[in-house]
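Escalated from tier 1: 1,3-dihydro-2H-indol-2-one holo job.
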Amino acid sequence: TVHDNAVARYAKKEPRKNTINQLIQFGKHINEQKLIQSARFVHQELPVRLAHRIIDLRSLPYYVVCGPIKRIYDVYVEAFESVRNFRKIQDSADEKEFTVLLKHLVDESANVVELLAHGLRLALLKASEREHLDLDSFVDQMLMSRIGRRMIAEQHVMLHESRPGFVGVINTNCSPRECLDIAYQECSRICFRQYGVTVPVQIRGSVSTIPYIPYHLHYILLELLKNAMRAVVEKHFFRSRTQKDLLLSKDSLPCIEVLLTQGPKQVTIRISDQGGGIPLDILPNVFRYGFSTVNRLREEQQQQEGGGEWDLLVQRQSVDGPMAGLGFGLPLSKLYAQYFGGSLQLVSMDGYGTDVYVHLDRTGDVLEGVEI
Ligand code: W6P
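Tier 2 regenerated the structure:
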């Protein structure tokens, strides 16, 4: 068909990657001409990046690309076509219309992570009967690429708005400390709603600001704090209740300790909890997608034969609640950290607690979406 050729043609091109500093340099002192240039870049670049993912999706086994994953495929092909078929951007009117299209595409693909999670669990269930199936690097690639596509689309959209301290979605003086405080407040609220208790945090050290996309850092910190709080609460609060020990008071829950440090090139955020650590047999799997849920799902399916497997998966997701971790949140946080040249590492102290190290580049000179 026609778009098969187009996909192949675009997939021959390499994505054009930017650094944060290039994006800032381009986006500051924005004017109409630069907006047109920016739109032209996105117009050319999005189909290239989408084409690579469309090819990837086609290379998966047939039984994987059905249900939710087929829907992702359709969304990508439709996005590919609508961007590619947009007329050559010549003036501000074209640029404005193109920006509207980008906003639609960003909104329409909001549920892709969810679809991917459901599709993956289905695929792993099906595969377990036939073959060993490892989709981790595929999912890494899908999500890393998605972070990039959304970044360039949202960056263009946001270049229309001027916010103090921001160039598009980039905060030129993003404060890790401020981001931590905000994430902690939110996490504390979520935790209190779920468990009726919250875990105190103790923050040491200080760092200067970095050029960064606050949303990325917020996602990482919220996810890590949720995991840490959940571990601490479940170890120190519930266990003592079931053993009919004295109920621990809120104050006796061990703090989550956060250390902020910086060197010439990196900022480091270390988050330490005393939640008992991660059992050694599941430690190798904490960055694997959907691993922790597969067995649980299989049992559930055996109990509840009939009914669409889909509905079951969707329900399952919602009963886990907002504190549920170790599904997609941790590997996705790692990708966000790696996206602009950082990293995320986890060290478990068996029976005691977990340290997570988040390294972030502070130079702004690392290309987006570094190879993984
Ligand atoms: C745990 C498990 C985990 C994952 C990520 C971050 C912190 C923690 N703590 O027990």
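The first strand starts at residue 166 and ends at 167.
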